[in-house]
Each structure stands twice: as structure tokens, then as C-alpha cells.
Write a structure and sequence with these properties.
The complex is a heterotrimer of chains A (128), B (127) and C (628).
Chain A (H helix, E strand, L loop, with lengths): L6 E5 L3 H13 L3 E5 L2 H10 L4 E4 L8 H9 L3 H4 L3 E5 L4 H9 L4 E4 L4 H12 L4
Parallel strand pairs in A: 1-2, 1-3, 3-4, 4-5
Helix pairs in contact in A: 1-6, 2-3
Chain B lengths: L3 E5 L3 H14 L4 E5 L2 H10 L4 E5 L7 H11 L5 E5 L4 H10 L2 E4 L4 H19 L1
Parallel strand pairs in B: 1-2, 1-3, 3-4, 4-5
Helix pairs in contact in B: 3-4
Chain C lengths: L2 H26 L4 H20 L3 H19 L6 H24 L6 H15 L24 H15 L6 H18 L3 H16 L3 H14 L23 H30 L3 H29 L1 E3 L1 H4 L2 H12 L3 E6 L4 E3 H22 L3 H7 L5 E10 L2 E8 L6 H10 L5 H6 L2 H6 L22 H10 L3 E7 L3 E9 L4 E9 L2 E6 L3 E8 L4 E3 L2 E6 L2 E7 H4 L10 E9 L2 E7 L1 E9 L13 E6 L5 E5 L1 H5 L1
Parallel strand pairs in C: 2-4, 9-18, 13-15
Antiparallel strand pairs in C: 1-3, 4-5, 5-7, 6-7, 8-9, 8-16, 10-14, 11-12, 12-13, 14-15, 17-18
Classes of the chains: A alpha/beta (128), B alpha/beta (127), C alpha+beta (628).
């Protein structure tokens, strides 16, 4: 874990995807945490500050859209944390649905590591 | 009262520029120069240096790392870190180690301001 | 020139070299973090240097490069060929400015226009996707900005849309996050001030429910930081170094020697006083001899140290080639890479300085004629990317430089045919030549096998110019080749050009020096063996007719047609062979040659002069001039 790095929470139920994103962002210099679904993500977000959330849409218990809706209802910095949706759904209606609940950007899976890192760095204002 | 100042920059041109500005402000001061952090530490260990002006961007250890080392050695030594890039991060880190941030190219006024405060502090600790 | 400008030029050149080097290395290894850091630092330090000498336009130009490299460093921009090209073009411009300042000693007056051009090209490089708004009115843009990458632009667009959405649910958080992300994007690309402005605006406007103001501010910022300009390439101009950087250690040696010489001088003074009183000449003689030996040692050490001062690594001549090869292979459409070995090999400054042109010519030739076209290589089963090696090594008192390609090799049949056609020598002679001799025909004056005049080599000069310039400072050029496997051109150069080995000869009652490297042999011939040919004369040496020049006559003195035998020095220079008739052969000497000056300056046929032990000036002849 790099000291002073920007902290990113990966929210995805697929272990392989989490690992893939974790490796990419970790190698990109980010400090990475993981959550398996929206419920777990909300617990973590309320417990500690993050610089960026990388969120999947289709997840059991609480999906990405519901999670985002709940997140944006939070007051202060917790509610305003930048969110990057990474989903297998590529339809315009999917993108629009995410935007409507306050997703800051939308990438379609699979995402190349360097693309993920580039977007994360831009959205966080850097890696550190 | 005359002091001895250490100028650290990997560019000789930059050191010449600082020396020229210094000469305009305090012609009676003596100065030593170093091209990198290692040389700077060697000069410091020779003794007699009262204050230092450090370039931020140097190969090897940068000016902020050097500033931290110098402060550890001598917490009372006034330090300035100069950089051509006025990055918030550098300014803040300079502040954090207790150094003054100065922009490149160094203006006479900026150096004079730094030196005025430095002299005041040096005299206070000497008294 | 003031001392600041002087130092600026010295450091500037070093930093340009360092930066170019790093950029080219990054092209091979795009992820090399140390190289990125080093390139960044080179641009940064150059920018700082420009600021010190008040060269604002140059500082702006470098700032643009520095911004892009900073983005590369942060991982937001990839080190694409376009980025490399731009950064190199930026250094080219800086280099051109340095050349100009070298001449005038002042900051160029018209630099701002050129600076704006470079900066605008930079703003294009990170934004190569099609954006309609980027097409318009490039010239009116502020020059001092870093362009938005396509992801950055898309991210900013997305935030504008979020801010324009007035849906009540989670609105404040949504807007805040959008403003936050937009500011982060700007900050990450180095637009720190714009990011700060945006955040301050968001703080007040969003709590007042005015997301529109923030959205508009983002759109305005995007507009102000994007620009479009045509992309061009910049060529490299040859540069002339006037100053010499010397390793401090070498200066220290000189300082120490100066000290020892002072001591030796004082000792001589002491001996002089002794001589007044000393009645025993034998004792005085012993003391003087000892002192003489001591001085002799010091002087030879001094001589060596002075030569050392003039020693430079070949890197200075080599460093521009990776760049140039890259450009040339681009022009020719023949992918090739240059492998440099032994760049740290040292040679005399004048050798290093004079090497660039001939090397450039040989490398050009390799790429242009030596290498097959890409499709031909493929059909031959050769690697698609050709390799040209540039090697240097010290071998005793010589520097050997090789340029080896893996191309088609020399076409000897064609070389013979062309040589016959151009009348380089009689066809019977050419047909009888060994492969080695036939290969060497490419160095014959006026010879060129180029089937068509190409962009690169078609400059009206052949390999004979390479040979002439290498021979000018006592070097030799040879070529070897294997059909289908490649060609190697080899320069063998003296390590120092200052020490010239000469043979003294006497003609017309005067002593002259002949450079040893030009002397083939000395012969004595009966006068009948010399045959008049028109107004000139010649003799036959091992079945070869060699023209004879009466040196005394040629130098305006009287000839030496008397005597039953002629003393002849056979010399070879500039591709010509000839005999010089002299009165007498003299010694062989190592001399430190100085360029002819005073009355001798500008007289053709004089290579240089040196002082002899008895104080006379020895004129060393330029044989090339005599034989032409």
C-alpha cells in the first residue's frame, strides 16, 4: 500500500473482476479496498472516506443503481464522492440510468487496465 | 551581520542566478554551492552554513527531501525551496518541513523577503 | 557574451542532448520510469534556465513539453509516437535557438511566433480524436495551456450533463460530485488554477442552487484549453561547439603540474646562482642534467595533459544519430534501428567534431542503398526491422569506428561496371581487381552506385567525400561486405590529431615535413627510369605508372635534375598516388602541428607548422593539395 495514495473502493460481486481491477489500480499507484455488493459498499463508505468508487451494476443484495441512489442521498463529502460505473451493459438506456442517479462516468467491461487507471487518476485529480 | 548561505541546484546557471540576486541584496555574505543533495550534506558537515536555498527538482534526492534532512540536522536553519513549478503540493510539502517556498526565476524581492525573515530568526536564536 | 548566456548555452546543449536521449530511449521502452523522470527533469531545468536569461518564449515552449511529460509521468497520457515527435520537435526548436544565441550572444527577437507554433502543436497531441470545437481558430488560443485528452474531455462533458440535470433526488451530492470530478480532471492535467477557480465557484453557486454557472464554467474552461494546429516535423541543424567542457580532474592535474613547474623553475634559479660560485663544472653539469630530466618529465606530462583536455567522448558525435536514423527510416519507409556501442570511447575534440558529417553520410548510404526494401527483406526471410550498428573502440593509438548494416551487401559486379563506365580506371584494371580492391572503388572520386537520386543520398557527393574528410585528419576508410548479409564501413582514426608523425625531407635547400601516414615508401631510381610525359614526368613502380613531382620546383625553387639517381618519396593522399623527388631524406619526428598562421595562412599546400628543436619552423605539406 502506497503512503498518501488516493483511495479507491471497488464494488463488484465477481471475484475475478475485483482482482483484475485491484491489480490494475494497485499497480497504477492507488490504494484499493473492495466490497462485494451495494450493502457492503455503503458500510465501508460510511465508515471511511474514499476518493473514488468503481461500481458494478449487476450485483446481488443491492445493485449499483440502488446503491448510487442511496449514496447521493448522503450529506456532505460522503454523498459527493466520485463514482465510476463499470458494467457489462452497454446500452444507452443503461448509461442514462446510471447518470440519472448521479454516476460521474460510465465504462463498459471489459476495461483495459491502463484505461481504468487513466480514468481513476483523472477523477481523483491524480494518484496521490 | 554577515551570514553564510548554501545554494543547492544541479544547474550551475541557476546557482549563478541565485548568487547574483543574493549579491544584490547582501553583497557581504559568503556563499557555498552544491550541485546535489549529497554535495550539500558534505558542505553542511564542513560547518559554518547559516541558511540554505534549495532547488526542488534535482536528480537523486529532491530539494524537499534535502530540506527535511537539513532540518533534522539543524532545526533552526532557515531554508527556502525554489521551483519553477508553483505546484500546490510542493508549496504544502515545503511548508510541512518548515521551508519557505520560492518561485523560479527568483526575484530580488522574493529572496529579500525570505532573507529578512531568516536574518530575524537567526539573530533571535543567536541572542 | 555575458557569463550567464555562456553558461546557459553550455547547460542548454547538455539538457537538449539528455532530453533527446531519454525520449528516444522511451520510444523503445515506453514504461521506463527513470527515463520519463529524466526527460521531465531535462525539460524542467531547461525551462528554468530559459527563465534565468529572460527567454520567455523558450520557457513557454518547454513548459508545454514539460506539461505533457508530467502527464506521462502521472500515467494520464501515454508516450505515443506523436508525443515523442512533439517533444523532440520542441527540443529541436530549442536547439535552433541555442545556435542562434551562440552566434549573436543574445536572446532571439522573433522567438515568440515559433514558440506559439510549438505550443499549439502540443495542445493537439493529447487530443487526436475528432472534436468539432477543436477545429476553429487555433491562433487565438492562449499559448500556455495543456490540452485535454479524449477521456478528460469525455469526463468533463459527463460532469456538465450531471450539473444540467435538475432532478431533485440526491441533487446536491450529485452536483458536488460533478464539480469535484471536473476540478480533479483539470487539476490532474496541470490546470491547477482553473481547478481551484471551479471549486470556489461550486462552493457558492451550488449551495445557491445554481449548477448552471458551474456547468458553464466547465464548458468555458474546456474551450480555453483546447486548440488545434497542423503538425509538422523539424529538421536538425548541424551545430558548432565553441566551448569545451573539461572534467575538473583534468584541470586539477594541470594545476598540480603548474605547481611542479614553478618548483622546477626555482630550482633552475638556484643552479644559476650556484654556477657563479661553483668552480667544479662537472658537479654543475650533473645538477643541470638532473634538472633537465625532471623538466623533461614535467613537459611531457604537461603535453599529455593538454591533449587530454581536448579529449571528448564520441557520444558528442553519436548522440544525434538515433534521432536522425529514426527520421530517415521514416522518410525511406525502411524500418531500421540503430545500435550504438562504445559511445564513451574518447577521441580528440577535433576528430569528434569532424566525424559527424562522414558518419552521417555513411549511415545515410547504409539506409538508402545498403538496406533492402521491407517487402524484399520479408521475401528473403530477414527480420523486418533492419539493424545498423555504430560501434567505436579504442585500439592502441587509434580509434576504430564501424558502421555495419544487415542489408544486401555490395554488388561488386555493378560497382565494377559503374567504375568502368565512369572511367575510374581502365576496364582491364578494374576487371583484374580483387574483391577488396573492387569494394574500395566506392571511395573513388565521383563514384556513386545510386540507381536513382534519392531524397537522402542524392546530394551530389559520394563516398569519396567521406574518405577525403577522414583522411584529412590522418584516418583511413575501408569497406567490407558479404553478399546478402550486409556491409561494414570502418574508419580508423588517430586518437590524437595534435601529434603528427612526419618525415623531414630537404628540397630546394629547405626542410619540409611530410605526414608519415601519406608516405607509401621511399625509392631511389636511376634518372633514366624517369620518363617525360608531356611537360610532366613519371616513373614505373611495380608495373604502375606514377606521376613524379619535383618538390623543389613545385615549391618555387630550383629543380634537382642533376645526379645519377633520384631520391623519391612515394605518397598517397586523397585517392591519388604520386612520387615527390627530394634532395635528401631526413628524420622521423612526432610533432604537435599548429594551423598555419601569419604569412603562411591561406597558402594552399601547407598542412600546418611546428617548431623544431633548433627553433626553426618546420612546414608540413598537405600532400593532397600537391597530388591534385
Amino acid at each position: 500500500m502506497a503512503e498518501g495514495s488516493k483511495r479507491v473502493l471497488i464494488v463488484d460481486d465477481a471475484g475475478l473482476v475485483r482482482r483484475f481491477h485491484r491489480d490494475a489500480l494497485g499497480q497504477g499507484g492507488f490504494d484499493v479496498a473492495e466490497a462485494l455488493n451495494g450493502v457492503e459498499a455503503m458500510e465501508k463508505v460510511l465508515a471511511e472516506p474514499f476518493d473514488l468508487l468503481v461500481v458494478d451494476v449487476n450485483m446481488p443484495q443491492m445493485d449499483g443503481i440502488s446503491f448510487l441512489k442511496a449514496l447521493r442521498r448522503q450529506e456532505g463529502p460522503t454523498g459527493a464522492v466520485p463514482v465510476l460505473i463499470v458494467s457489462t451493459e452497454a446500452g444507452p438506456q443503461d448509461v442514462e440510468a446510471a447518470r440519472a442517479v448521479g454516476a460521474n462516468f460510465y465504462l463498459v467491461k471489459p476495461v483495459r487496465p491502463e484505461v481504468l487507471v487513466e480514468h481513476a487518476a483523472l477523477m481523483c485529480g491524480g494518484v496521490r | 551581520m554577515s551570514f553564510r548561505i548554501l545554494i543547492v541546484d544541479d544547474s550551475k546557471l541557476a546557482r549563478m542566478a541565485v548568487a547574483k540576486t543574493l549579491n544584490a541584496v547582501h553583497p557581504d555574505w559568503s556563499r557555498v554551492e552544491a550541485a546535489n543533495a549529497d554535495e550539500a550534506m558534505a558542505k553542511i558537515k564542513e560547518g559554518g552554513v547559516d541558511l540554505a536555498v534549495l532547488d526542488f527538482n534535482m536528480p537523486g534526492r529532491d530539494g524537499l527531501e534535502l530540506a527535511a534532512e537539513l532540518k533534522a540536522l539543524n532545526p533552526g536553519m532557515p531554508l527556502a525551496v525554489i521551483s519553477a513549478n508553483h505546484q500546490i503540493e510542493v508549496v504544502e510539502r515545503a511548508k510541512a518541513v518548515g521551508a519557505t517556498f520560492l518561485s523560479k526565476p527568483l526575484t530580488e524581492q522574493a529572496l529579500r523577503d525570505f532573507l529578512d525573515v531568516a536574518v530575524k530568526n537567526l539573530k533571535a536564536t543567536a541572542a | 557574451m555575458n557569463e550567464f548566456i555562456e553558461q546557459f548555452l553550455i547547460e542548454g546543449r547538455e539538457l537538449v542532448a539528455q532530453g533527446s536521449d531519454d525520449l528516444l530511449a522511451l520510444e523503445e521502452q515506453p514504461g521506463d520510469k527513470q527515463r520519463i523522470d529524466s526527460a521531465f527533469r531535462a525539460f524542467h531545468t531547461l525551462k528554468g534556465a530559459a527563465g534565468i536569461v529572460d527567454f520567455t518564449a523558450m520557457a513557454e515552449t518547454l513548459h508545454a513539453g514539460e506539461d505533457v511529460l508530467s502527464a506521462v509521468r502521472a500515467g494520464t497520457v501515454t508516450m505515443s509516437p506523436a508525443v515523442t515527435n512533439l517533444c523532440l520537435a520542441c527540443l529541436d526548436q530549442v536547439s535552433a535557438w541555442l545556435d542562434e544565441m551562440q552566434k549573436t550572444g543574445e536572446v532571439p527577437a522573433d522567438a515568440q511566433t515559433k514558440a506559439n507554433e510549438v505550443v499549439q502543436r502540443f495542445s493537439l497531441v493529447t487530443d487526436t480524436s475528432t472534436h468539432a470545437e477543436a477545429e476553429d481558430d487555433a491562433a487565438s488560443r492562449a499559448p500556455d495551456v495543456l490540452a485535454l485528452t479524449p477521456p478528460a474531455r469525455q469526463l468533463l462533458d459527463a460532469q456538465v450533463r450531471l450539473l444540467n440535470d435538475n432532478g431533485a433526488d440526491g441533487r446536491t451530492a450529485r452536483w458536488l460530485s460533478a464539480a469535484h470530478v471536473a476540478a480533479n480532471v483539470l487539476r490532474h492535467l496541470g490546470h491547477v488554477a482553473e481547478a481551484g477557480n471551479l471549486e470556489r465557484l461550486a462552493e457558492t453557486a451550488l449551495s445557491a442552487g445554481n449548477a448552471r454557472a458551474v456547468a458553464d464554467a466547465i464548458a468555458r474552461t474546456m474551450e480555453s484549453v483546447s486548440a488545434a494546429a497542423p503538425q509538422g516535423t523539424a529538421g536538425a541543424a548541424p551545430l558548432a561547439d565553441q566551448t569545451l567542457r573539461v572534467d575538473v580532474k583534468r584541470i586539477d592535474v594541470l594545476v598540480k603540474l603548474a605547481g611542479e613547474l614553478t618548483v622546477a623553475k626555482n630550482a633552475l634559479g638556484h643552479l644559476a646562482r650556484l654556477a657563479q660560485d661553483e668552480t667544479n663544472p662537472a658537479r654543475l653539469s650533473v645538477a643541470l642534467k638532473a634538472q633537465h630530466l625532471h623538466l623533461e618529465r614535467l613537459v611531457s606530462e604537461l603535453q599529455r595533459s593538454v591533449v587530454d583536455l581536448r579529449v571528448l567522448p564520441l557520444q558528442t558525435a553519436f548522440q544525434r544519430f538515433p534521432r536522425l536514423v529514426r527520421e530517415m527510416t521514416g522518410t525511406l519507409g525502411k524500418p531500421a534501428r540503430l545500435m550504438i556501442e562504445g559511445a564513451s570511447t574518447e577521441a580528440d575534440k577535433s576528430v569528434v567534431a569532424a566525424l559527424f558529417e562522414p558518419l552521417l553520410h555513411v549511415i545515410r548510404n547504409s539506409l538508402d542503398h545498403g538496406l533492402e526494401a521491407a517487402n524484399e527483406r520479408a521475401s528473403l526471410g530477414k527480420p523486418a526491422i533492419a539493424t545498423v550498428h555504430l560501434r567505436a573502440a579504442r585500439q592502441g593509438e587509434h580509434i576504430v569506428i564501424e558502421i555495419e548494416d544487415d542489408g544486401r551487401g555490395l554488388d561488386l559486379a555493378r560497382i565494377r561496371a559503374v567504375a568502368v563506365e565512369r572511367g575510374v580506371a581502365p576496364s582491364a584494371v578494374i576487371e583484374a581487381m580483387s574483391e577488396e580492391e573492387a569494394s574500395a572503388l566506392i571511395f573513388a572520386p565521383g563514384f556513386s552506385t545510386a540507381a536513382k537520386v534519392s531524397d537522402l543520398s542524392g546530394r551530389g557527393v559520394g563516398m569519396d567525400v567521406v574518405r577525403t574528410s577522414i583522411e584529412r585528419f590522418g584516418g583511413q576508410v575501408t569497406v567490407s561486405s558479404r553478399p546478402g548479409q550486409g556491409t561494414t564501413v570502418r574508419f580508423t582514426l588517430p586518437f590524437t590529431v595534435m601529434m603528427t608523425r612526419v618525415m623531414t625531407v630537404e628540397a630546394a635547400g629547405q626542410i619540409f615535413g611530410l605526414p608519415m601516414e601519406a608516405i607509401v615508401e621511399t625509392v631511389r631510381l636511376p634518372r633514366e627510369a624517369i620518363k617525360p610525359i608531356g611537360t610532366a614526368s613519371a616513373f614505373v613502380l611495380r608495373n604502375r605508372t606514377v606521376p613524379l613531382i619535383d618538390l623543389g620546383q613545385a615549391l618555387g625553387g630550383k629543380g634537382q635534375t642533376s645526379g645519377p639517381e633520384a631520391t623519391i618519396v612515394v605518397v598517397k593522399a586523397g585517392g591519388h598516388i604520386g612520387g615527390l623527388e627530394v634532395d635528401r631524406l631526413g628524420d622521423r619526428l612526432d610533432v604537435m602541428l599548429t594551423a598555419p598562421d601569419g604569412l603562411l595562412a591561406g597558402i594552399p599546400g601547407i598542412d600546418g607548422t611546428t617548431l623544431m628543436g633548433d627553433g626553426r619552423v618546420l612546414i608540413v605539406l598537405d600532400l593532397q593539395a600537391f597530388l591534385q
